[in-house]
Amino acid sequence: MTTTTPGAWGRGKLLAILAAALAASLGLLVGLGLFVRQVLTDEAPDPLAAQETAPAQVVLAEAHLPQEGPARRERIADTPMLTVDDPRAYRQGQVTTTVTEPLGVPSPTTTGPVDVPTGFPRTPEGAVGQLAAIDVSVIRAMSVPATHEIYRSWSTGGADPARWVMAGNVTDFLTAAGQAGQTKEAGLVVTAVPAAGQVKGTDGPDWVVACVLLQLEASLVEQAQAAYGHCEAMTWTGDRWVIDTTHRVSPAPSTWPGTDLAARAGWRPWSPAPAPVDAGPTGDVTGGTGTWVGPLDGRGSGGGR
User: Fold this and answer.
1) What is the rounded CA–CA span in Å between residue 59 and residue 47?
2) How would you label 96-122 residue by residue, b for 16+ Cβ within 10 Å and e otherwise?
């Protein structure tokens, strides 16, 4: 029996993204075979119809949550988010007429283990920023060994890195792209930019379920874009946020930023928070001026082997 890890990109979605981005490569088309051609030619449902039938997001009402502790954390982690069945929702949709309050996310101020940007404050928004930095670093590398190293360095430990949802995403991506080995080859560029985020819930100042909506782009000869939502429980260790491996979190909806469906799913547009007075730009980081640059936006040279 085949099981799907919650939050995984999914084989069909990966093939569609990669085939659209890399269709000029005959070798890729031959390698992916008939299944890719079926993904590209299947008639997709109307995205507006999907928006009308998608179940509403389950709202976590504070009054109905346990006050604190393991029961509260389990409820926050397990409560399902908006289910999105439309296969085109991750790359397009009706622009929303609703004005959603942006989520002010602080910029990193330094670099932590395995070159992941860090220095985020002990706030729910800081946890969102740290998860985004972890995800962008994984996608920039698009490497199985690097993903394992990042997870070991940025989690509470005790969990097999191979079972992390992002590790599964990376291996599926490399397989579908026909890459030779466990790291993307030179010429294949995959970037990720945080487009939206949300705080699903908190338990005191040191525990947050943070969610990030990333705008992905894959390119070789042609380009294609997609959105990917990812949630993790994050815990404060005393000087930084890390992934809490003891709480598995229900998957986040992957919806194209700025759409009606994204608004219904609870996504708030990403907005850099003002930089602290005593924290200026460090390295490739812009302090509160608008955009993460350099290593944070995932734009690398394509990575060699």
Assistant:
1) 23
2) beeeeeebbbbbbbebbeeebbbbbbe
- Which residue matches tokens 């599926």? 172
**How does DSSP assign 85-137, residue by residue?**
--TTTTT--PBP-S-PPPEEEPPP-EE-GGG-EE---SSHHHHHHHHHHHHHH
For tokens 């590209």, name the residue.
40
129: number of CA atoms within 13 Å, CB side?
27
Tell whether pTM > 0.85.
Answer: no
φ, ψ (nearest 5 deg) of residue 119: 90, 15
- pLDDT at residue 268 in the model: 95
The DSSP result for 255-284, as a single string, is --TTBHHHHHTT-EEEEEPPPPTT----TT
Cα dihedral 159, 214, 224, 12, rounded to 10, equals 40
pLDDT in tens, 215-249: 888 776 656 678 889 999 999 999 999 999 998 99
Single out the residue of 141, 170, 144, 173 nearest to residue 13, CA to CA.
173
Tell me the two tokens of residue 22.
């890399």
pLDDT of residue 90: 77
Is 100 in contact with 271 (CB distance < 8 Å)?
Answer: no
Please give the biggest Cα pair distance in the chain: 58
State pLDDT tens for residues 56-83.
455 566 767 888 889 999 999 999 999 8
The answer to whether the CB of 293 falls within 8 A of the CB of 194 is no
Q: Which two tokens stand for residue 293?
A: 């640059």
- The stretches in the chain having pLDDT less than 70 are 1-6, 10-61, 63, 220-224, 274-305
DSSP string computed for 170-210: HHHHHHHTT-SSSBPPTT-EEEEEEEEEEEEEESSTTEEEE
